[in-house]
Write a structure and sequence with these properties.
Helix content: under 10%
Largest sheet: 7 strands, mixed
Distance between the termini: 40 Å
Strand content: over 45%
Radius of gyration: 13 Å
Number of helices: 0
Number of strands: 11
Order of helices and strands: EEEEEEEEEEE
Shape: globular
Length: about 130
């Protein structure tokens, strides 16, 4: 069983930065690929970024490439999402997630394939 708890959301002006954190419980964290989705009001949950279990491969939504960076710290059982040059269209609830598959890779996941989810953290970008 894996529990995920996000933090770091908040209100920021366009062009600003935030770093989201996701603390994971469970001894299998280091063997799981991890990622982030987001859901804006009235829209479907969409994939944002993923990182392979080894940390060697990442995958991003096209609209965040060059602005967002996903990383992990296995010693802290934590996955991060550094978000720079934020835009109003980045406003959403951001969710930490994992397919829960050992030694998984990073790719553009579908939310129906995710096994574990955090409760989300709200990011609001003002114009």
């Amino acid at each position: 069983q894996v529990q995920l708890v996000e933090s770091g959301g908040g209100l920021v002006q366009a062009g600003g930065s935030l770093r989201l954190s996701c603390a994971a419980s469970g001894r299998t964290f280091s063997s799981y690929a991890m990622g982030w989705f987001r859901q804006a009001p009235g829209k479907e949950r969409e994939f944002v970024a993923a990182i392979s279990w080894s940390g060697g491969t990442t995958y991003y939504l096209d609209s965040v490439k060059g602005r967002f960076t996903i990383s992990t710290d296995n010693a802290k059982n934590t996955v991060y999402l550094q978000m720079n040059m934020l835009k109003p269209e980045d406003t959403a609830v951001y969710y930490c997630t994992t397919p829960g598959i050992h030694y998984g890779g990073a790719e553009k996941w579908n939310y129906t394939g995710m096994r574990y989810w955090g409760k989300g953290t709200l990011v609001t970008v003002s114009s």
